[in-house]
Amino acid sequence: MFKLGEVVIPTDQDYEYIRKLCEDNQGWKIDYEKNNLKVWTKQNDLSQFNMIRARAEFNDVSAKVLYDVIQDGEYRETWDSKLDSAIDICYISPNSDIGYFAIKSPKPFKNRDFVTQRCWLDLGENKDKILFNHSVNHAKFPPKKGYVRGLSYITATLIKPTSPNSCILYYVTQSDPGGSFPVWVVNSTTRIIAPKFVKKIYKACLKYEKWKAKHNPSYMPWVNPEQFKMPRIDWNDIQTLDKAQLASNSVDESQISENQIQDNDED
Question: What residues does the START domain cover (predicted)?
Answer without folding.
Answer: 16-210
